[in-house]
Amino acid sequence: MQIHWTTVIDIIQEAPYTWTYKLDSPADFTWEEGAHTHLALEGFNSGEKPNKSLVRHMSISTLPGERAIGITTRIKDECSEFKSELRKLTVGDSVALFKTHSNVTLKREDKAINLLSCGVGIATFRPLVLEYLSNASGIDRIHSLSIDSSKNYLFSDSFKSLPEHQLSVQHVDNRHTYYKEVEQLTKDKHALFYVVGGDEFLKENISFLRRQGITDEQITLDKHESRAGVFFV
Ligand SMILES: Cc1cc2nc3c(=O)[nH]c(=O)nc-3n(C[C@H](O)[C@H](O)[C@H](O)COP(=O)(O)OP(=O)(O)OC[C@H]3O[C@@H](n4cnc5c(N)ncnc54)[C@H](O)[C@@H]3O)c2cc1C
Known about the structure:
alpha/beta, Elongation Factor Tu (Ef-tu), domain 3, globular, FNR_nucleotide-bd, Riboflavin_synthase-like_b-brl, Ferredoxin--NADP+ reductase
C-alpha cells in the first residue's frame, strides 16, 4: 500500500464548524471526481498496528486541476480524537493519504443525474459538478438537492443553478420538503440518483426511491461494490 505524506497548505472556514483543509498534491497522486481517501494524522503508523483512531475516510472536494487536495469536514466542540487532532493542525503540518478510490464517477449514459446529499456530504459532489461543467457529454442534466438543517449551505460558488448548462441546485432544511422534492425528481423514470450522507440517510433514500419505482441499478452510493450490498437488502 502506497502512503503519500503531504502538507497542509491552507485551512478555509466554510461555515460554522466546517473547514476545508487544502493539501499539497504530490506529483504522483491523482484521483477522479467523487474520490475518497484515507486521511491519517501523524503517529497513525508509529505502533505495531495502525492506530485507527487517527484515520478517517474523507472525500476529496476538489479536482486535480485545482492543484490542491481539498478535504472538507465538520468539527463540533464535542468531537472524536481524530477531529480534535485535526483541529490542531496548522499550515505546514504533515498528513498522510492512502487507498484513494472513487465509487461515484459521472455516468455518461445520456440520462439526467440527481445528486442527493445530506450536510457535509455535498463535498463529495463538488468535483462532480465541476467535472460536468467542463465536459457535459453523455449527461442530459444535473440536479443537486441537498439537505442541511443548519442552513449553512456549502460551496455556493460551485452549487448555483446555471440553466444554460442544464445545472440546477436546490437546498432544503427539513426532511419533509426534501422528500417532496425527491418525489418530483422520480417523475423521470430513467434518471440516475447518487446519494451521499450517513448510513441512515442512505437507507431512507433507497427505500423512498424504490417506493417511487426507481430501480437499484439507478441508485449509486459512495460505497465500494462489496459493501453497497448491505444497503440494498
Ligand atoms: C466514503 C466516505 C467518505 C466520507 N467523506 C467524508 C467527508 O468528506 N467529510 C466528512 O466530514 N466525513 C466524511 N466521511 C465520514 C468520516 O469518515 C467520519 O466518519 C465522520 O466525519 C465522523 O467523524 P468522527 O468519527 O471523527 O466523529 P465526529 O465528527 O467527531 O463525531 C461524530 C458525532 O459524534 C459526536 N461526538 C463525537 N465525540 C463526542 C464526545 N466525546 N462527546 C459527545 N459527542 C461526541 C459529535 O458531536 C458528532 O455529532 C466519509 C465516510 C466515508 C465512508
